[in-house]
Design goal:
heterodimer; A: 545 residues; alpha/beta; Amidase signature (AS) enzymes; two-stranded antiparallel sheet; 15 helices; globular; B: 461 residues; nine-stranded mixed β-sheet
């Protein structure tokens, strides 16, 4: 079936997605969609009779609604402030909007968009005064006295928030995200807005429209993505901690590539309000820092129910007594995470960590997550479907530039997701993926089932390889997508996971492992992580910057 | 046409109703698009579709939708959810509308429809679902360039869509169905349902079946339908459907096929124009809204909503008819919520009184008719007084024109100041003058007639 996809079909999909593609782009996406569809067709053989689809991971939460009360609105000026064109208090839509239009009302930041040309140059010239930015981790300096950096997906009121994309290269948000507000209130002022793959689409940082971020451990290598700037900035010592988002591994991968601790929170533990959405049922904000203790401290400030995010909850379990009694904790090692595909050095580093934990009283047992092999296929159907929907709002009318400003990877995902959810294909792709997602969740439920010899925590590598070189996978989307093979299942199940440094490759590049727990078990992960960091010194190693 | 095969119109309606609420569907912005003094003053990150914004549903809007579902005789789905419906248009800020697809709040309703010249019939309601309204577009020419101006004050206003089954067989039936739905919406007080402002909007799906009417039952629907949008009055609905039936009949009689398409009604030309054909049919790519947890309604919750439902006009109508009120009177009284309440209250009390006095039930009917007749005058009076007046009136109301004219002329002569006041525009003066006539008549003058004569005499004076 993958091979039977025609250029006409792809053209129809482009129309549904409101994208204008060149002839070359059409050819390219037809080929790439064929490849990817060929890959996801492995789901055809998965039996899902009687399996209910999973669209959200909310522990059965229902009826989240608000009372019918009037709250604050934006002023007319605020609402219109980011539009390219306004008339008498109205936004203006015209066919000509596909091209940047001159501003017809001044009094606002009055720059014609054509001036910018390539915006990465604009950013680079703005940042050229920052000698710290040799890794291209920083997009905007906010306050030199600040303490934290934010991935540029987090909206900061009045401070450019680009999501790493040309579409938002001039966007000055009218509001701040909930977690940024919480941090500011607790005294964690914002220092930098950090580079990332555009729209968080990527595993290497190379999809940023403002240039790749470099790995402070070796500038020829990627820092991992998509929270590339967050990891590079912490590793280079530019900030103590940085926020990130993890939709399929985007916090854990860069943390492990940069010898850092990265928390992907339980879906719903941290508010998504005010964070540019990638895939709404998978997006989990989180924190990257040098030690578990630092990450824990910042996470506690950010966590909690937000009335503006109907999927958020305040359910993180209270801290346990793990630090004094490690013997009661059982750690499961999924055999599938150590398959033939895994790099030998990574395997050794992670298994060494397992032995250290075992020696210190933790119980180790092998487990199986048989459906995790379908993770990437499910993920790339669910995620791209939601991406294609979430990126629908970028039409250049109310803010930002038009859809022609999307980069290649964003277009590819919009195309793929629109295809996977279009009439005639939705049942085969999106709906099927939602059912296999249930099987993946059931694997974890079984593994964590305390009444059936289950474990408390799962431990495995974050990436099957050590960091790869910039450019190494950039031209092969499917290979790049497979970088997330060990991380995406956690997102599909809405679980928390903590990435921790556990060694180095022979090229002196960091290797990371991840602890995965049941929903709301962040405190358990922190406890196990702190025990591990008290027994090892990996996290204290720093790159030469 | 008689005898030979006929084309039977197969018609279904889609009706959109903007719900009345303080705030919008998914955010706290004020829901008052018609009252807004300026464009784009009731917007926020959510209804403007800013990056990172998330929807939180309005509980009252969900209650109103369930109420309306119950009012339309629907089953309420215990498990519901919101879905995303994708399409691109400048007035749709997110590139998708939050709507309901697979699990709407209410399904399988029934509506009894009657009308002047119509047999009583049942129109089934397929579904009642909740969604959000779009912004509003204004088309303008600026420096020679055609542009659309967008106002998002309406964006995110709670909107209910009511879809009927294609049970309707004529333009008049369609009109009566729409009017009946309108009456129900108004009586439940969930919406202003103002057609002119656009808080109630009508669409019709029309196709033609060739054959005899009794043959149609149980047959498959025609393999096409034409959707007519932009209809903003019951009259235009009737007209648009009549036009469309004729248009399709002509095509079919010439041996051609009717194209499936969406057409827009144009009030100026009183015709419809093609907007979108089947080839360009939309693919909305529905999928469950991941930002909103599902809705699960308990029996208790639904029962509570049920208790909030006052009687529907139709139920009141039936009760009045059973009490012996004439059809036309019952229709007018039941359509007016305040009056209906008064009549019912009076009827009950009157019923009690009458039982004591062992009078027949048909008196109640006469009372209803009397209330109708004296509509203007009785509106502000308590039930007891109405019953008293009715009983008095029953015992000999004076409606003889000559007699009344005599009293009226006398009153005009005795009260020149009140007459002058009325002429100067003081409307209350007429009430005073009527009262004076009643004083002379011992309260037995036919008020309506007195008013008529008074107005005639004063204006001709």
């Amino acid at each position: 079936m993958g091979s039977s996809i025609t250029k006409q079909q792809v053209q129809h999909v482009a129309k549904l997605a409101n994208l204008q593609l060149s002839e070359e782009e059409l050819e390219l996406y037809t080929k790439q969609i064929k490849d990817i569809v060929g890959y996801v067709e492995q789901l055809d053989k998965v039996k899902v009779d009687g399996v209910k689809p999973t669209y959200q991971t909310l522990d059965g939460m229902v009826n989240v609604w608000r009372e019918d009360e009037v709250g604050m609105s934006l002023s007319q000026n605020e609402a219109l402030s980011q539009a390219k064109r306004i008339v008498d208090g109205y936004f203006v839509a015209a066919p000509a909007l596909r091209l940047p239009l001159p501003l017809i009302k001044s009094g606002r930041r009055g720059v014609a968009s054509a001036e910018f040309g390539r915006t990465s140059e604009f950013f680079q010239s703005k940042n050229s005064g920052l000698s710290e930015n040799k890794y291209n981790a920083i997009l905007t300096e906010v306050d030199e006295k600040g303490a934290v950096g934010h991935k540029d997906l987090f909206l900061t009121k009045g401070v450019r928030s680009s999501a790493g994309s040309n579409v938002l290269r001039e966007y000055l948000p009218q509001y701040s995200s909930t977690v940024v507000e919480l941090l500011e209130k607790a005294g964690f002022k914002t220092k930098y807005k950090l580079n990332c793959d555009a729209w968080a689409h990527g595993s290497s940082g190379e999809n940023s429209d403002f240039g790749s971020t470099k790995n402070p451990w070796n500038e020829e290598f990627t820092p991992g993505g998509s929270s590339s700037g967050s990891a590079a900035a912490v590793a280079a010592g530019l900030v103590d901690v940085a926020t990130g988002t993890d939709t399929g591994g985007s916090i854990r991968l860069p943390a492990s590539f940069c010898n850092l601790v990265g928390l992907k929170s339980t879906y719903g533990a941290l508010s998504r309000y005010g964070i540019v959405a990638m895939a709404s049922s998978l997006d989990s904000p989180g924190v990257i820092g040098k030690s578990v203790r630092e990450v824990k401290k910042v996470f506690k400030v950010m966590a909690g129910k937000d009335e503006r995010d109907a999927t958020s909850l305040d359910s993180v379990k209270r801290p346990g007594l793990v630090l004094t009694r490690p013997g009661i904790i059982r750690i499961g090692i999924p055999k599938e995470y150590f398959d033939k595909g895994i790099d030998l050095e990574v395997r050794q580093a992670v298994m060494t960590a397992v032995k250290i934990l075992e020696k210190n009283g933790f119980k180790i047992q092998e487990i199986s997550l048989p459906n995790s092999k379908y993770g990437i296929a499910v993920y790339y159907l669910v995620q791209t479907t939601e991406v294609s929907s979430n990126l629908g709002r970028y039409d250049g009318i109310r803010y930002g530039f038009g859809r022609e400003s999307f980069g290649a990877e964003a277009k590819r995902r919009i195309m793929l997701g629109t295809f996977a959810s279009s009439a005639g294909y939705s049942a085969k792709f999106f709906e099927k993926a939602a059912k296999v997602r249930t099987l993946i969740i059931q694997d974890f439920e079984k593994a964590f089932n305390s009444s059936a010899d289950g474990v408390d925590v799962i431990l495995g590598p974050v990436s099957s390889t050590p960091p790869f070189k910039l450019g190494e996978k950039a031209n092969d989307p499917l290979t790049m997508y497979l970088s997330d093979i060990l991380t995406v299942s956690v997102n599909l199940a809405g679980l928390p996971a903590l990435a921790l440094p556990c060694g180095f490759s022979k090229h002196n590049l960091p290797i990371g492992m991840q602890l995965i727990g049941p929903r709301w078990s962040e405190n358990l992960l922190f406890d196990v992580g702190e025990v591990y960091q008290s027994l090892t010194k990996w996290h204290t190693k720093k790159p030469q910057v | 046409m008689t005898g030979s095969f006929n084309y039977i119109p197969i018609i279904g309606l889609e009706i959109h109703v903007e719900l009345k609420s303080n705030s919008k569907m998914f955010c706290g912005c004020r829901n008052d698009p018609f009252g807004a003094s300026k464009p784009n003053i009731y917007t926020c990150p959510v209804c403007l579709g800013l990056p990172g914004a998330l929807p939180v549903p309005n509980k009252k809007a969900i209650e109103s939708t369930v109420k309306l579902g119950l009012g339309l005789g629907c089953e309420i789905n215990r498990e519901s959810r919101f879905d995303r419906k994708h399409y691109f248009y400048p007035d749709l800020p997110k590139g998708y509308q939050i709507s309901q697809y697979e699990r709407p709040f209410a399904t399988n309703g029934r509506l009894q429809v009657t009308g002047y010249r119509l047999e009583k019939k049942t129109v089934r309601i397929r579904r009642v679902h909740l969604e959000e309204d779009t912004g509003k577009l204004l088309h303008r020419k600026i420096n020679g360039e055609e542009v659309s101006l967008i106002d998002f004050n309406r964006s995110g206003v709670p909107l209910v869509e009511i879809v009927t089954e294609p049970d309707i067989r004529s333009a008049e039936e369609a009109k009566e169905t729409a009017k009946k739905i309108h009456r129900i919406v108004r009586s439940l007080e969930v919406s202003d349902a103002d057609m002119e402002k656009g808080s109630m909007r009508l669409e019709a799906n029309i196709s033609m079946f060739k054959g005899l009417a009794f043959e149609y039952k149980g047959q498959a629907l025609p393999n096409y339908k034409v959707e007519i949008k932009n209809i903003n009055s019951f009259r235009f609905l009737e007209r648009a459907i009549e036009e469309e039936i004729e248009r399709q009949r002509k095509i079919l009689e010439s041996g051609k096929e009717v194209k499936q398409e969406t057409r827009g009604w144009d009030t100026q030309s009183m015709t419809s124009k093609s907007q979108r054909t089947k080839e360009e049919a939309a693919d909305y790519r529905y999928f469950p809204e991941p930002d909103i947890p599902p809705i699960s309604l308990s029996d208790d919750w639904i029962s509570k909503i049920k208790t909030q439902i006052s009687k529907l006009p139709e139920e009141i109508y039936e009760e009045l008819i059973r009490a012996g009120v004439a059809e036309q009177a019952a229709r007018i009284i039941s359509a007016n919520k305040d009056l209906a309440a008064k009549v019912q209250e009076s009827t009950i009390k009157y019923n009690k009184v009458q039982k004591d006095e062992e009078l027949e039930a048909k008196e109640i009917g006469n009372f209803g008719n009397w209330v109708l007749h004296h509509q203007l005058e009785v509106r502000e009076k308590p039930a007891e007084e109405l019953i008293y007046l009715f009983k008095q009136g029953k015992e000999g109301i004076v409606s003889d024109s000559e007699q009344l004219e005599g009293w009226v002329l006398g009153v005009i002569e005795d009260n020149p100041r009140a007459v002058a006041d009325f002429k100067a525009g003081k409307q209350q003066a007429i009430g005073f003058l009527i009262g004076q006539v009643q004083r002379l008549a011992g309260g037995k003058a036919d008020v309506k007639k007195v008013k008529e004569i008074l107005l005639e005499k004063i204006t001709n004076k």
